[in-house]
Amino acid sequence: MLDFLLHLEEWLPILLNQYGTWIYAILFLVIFAETGSVFFFFLPGDSLLIAIGALCASSDLITLHSMGLLLFTASVLGYTVNYYTGRFLGLKFFNEHSRFFKPEYMVKTNQYFCKHGGKTILIARFVPFVRSFGPFAAGSAHMNFATFSFYNILGGLLWIPSLLIIGYMVGNAAFMLADLF
Length: 181
Description:
mainly alpha
């Protein structure tokens, strides 16, 4: 199962053949899980998006536009859930009895997010490990939700379409080359 999750992009054509348009729900859940929980940081977000774009170029069952809208929604909702998880549970990890998470770390994190939070949320979309932990840290630091939401949406608008389009162009190029030979 772990191998399947780690190499999900390799299984996409099989999933599409077996589940048809249910692939939309499966991929929504994968992107939502990766962005919505610190526990699914290992999911292949970037490579999966590129593979989805290539699959859209080769399939009549899924379209780039609808997949883009769906995955954008999944990523924004996932970040929002992760932010609120950090907001409500983050402080429980920071207490004077904790071995690794000290209250002074929380103060430093809060200062950091007041100064650099927007850039961090935006850039975190493109950094796999940070993508899962950035919104949790922002919530733990009680980053302003309006500011978080702005950068969350902007990051989703940049991350999802850019990687889907790269995959789509690569997929189209591969099919054009195949037609030539």
